[in-house]
Amino acid sequence: MTKRQMFYLFNFLVLATFAWAVVRDDDREWKTYQKGFRRLEIERVTDALSKAKTDGEKESLTLQLKAAKRSGTAIKQAMAPALNRYDRCVTCHQGFDPLTNPTLVNGYKEHPYKAPEVAAHKQHNLVKFACTSCHMGQGLATTVEAAHGEVAHWEEPMLTGPYIQATCVRCHANFMTLAGAERARHGRELVKKLGCVGCHSFNGVGGEISVDLGDIADKPTSRIDWSHTGDGPPDAHGVSALPHHKRSIKNWIELHFTKDTLTLVPGDPEGHQCAPGQKCEPVPPSGMPPFYKELSKEDAADITTYLMGQTDNKVPSNYFVYAAPEPEPKFASGVKHGEHVFQKYGCAGCHGEGGKQGRRNFNAKANEQTKMEEGVEPTLVKVIGGYSRDELREKIQKGVPASAVAKFNEHGPVPPLYMPKWGEKIKGEELEHLLDFLFSIAEKQEAW
Question: What CATH code is assigned to 329-448?
Fold first, then answer.
């Protein structure tokens, strides 16, 4: 091949590459949606024009038709610098673009063209809030998969269904009375009822046994062991993990309420994960109770929604909706106040609602036990009667350290749950009324 021929061939390849790039660029996913929306708009306005009766209507619709035909394809972007949000969602969802559709409502049924009436959209101006401040997702992306955020290594996939109410929790201190945040409210009520604060704190307020949940929505997914999160059988290495695009903090939180945490976070109770020839200290599995047995899928979703609202990424004060402090509750008796104290400090987290059933505590010694996973915390209604008032007061104040919890298997791990010292938190009238409540639920001891 001569140099001239090589020159012609090279130029031809460059021209072909350029032509391919033009064709490829015209076939972008978002351009397909914009062309589809323009077609629907032309059909809608043409139909309305054929039915128009007055000259004013015809003139207005004629202008609309010209504008629809003249509209080209272009990436559209909503910017909310105060929230650090730059979103291209309206590139595809043109029905919610205030420049294209000022009413933010249309009658189309097909996604992504449809724009049903949503009160929250009118209350959260796109120019001020953008899109992902509420919906999450990858705002700068221009393909469906990437924009919705269910791709590997993206930490904030789009929130759908009830989960979107998590962002109400982030911005509205009054979400407990906010219309549209009912699922988040129910989630908070369940967190309180289940006694989560007995083990977990929220921004430093609560228990000390496990992680602080005040910023749980910010936890990097890279810090999570996903080895036991899948639904399928484990592979040759004992791993059954969610696919990478499903590894979000939302799914991690929800798994704690839909799956047995002994499987989710199994630890190393037998001490086998050492290098050959070395001795390992056994590690207990997660101490979290098997809430999946008590909760419905809707309950699990509601708790997840509330916890997804727990973040350290605060919004500017002019975006945040403050709420008046909750009034102090009043009680008809000391026993009722004591019941409130029991719930307030999360005693149900270990001892069950109303102290009626101790929850699982791996390798804790219990009656009629055959294996480590059958260990439980004390059922208060059965054991309280064995204490005097002074003895029970002292036990609450001093707690029971993890090292003092009796083991079922002496060679197994230290049970993950223990009773913290409550002396600095529960005192005075709260302590005395808690004692009143505990003795009120105690089963009557058989008289000799």
Answer: 1.10.760
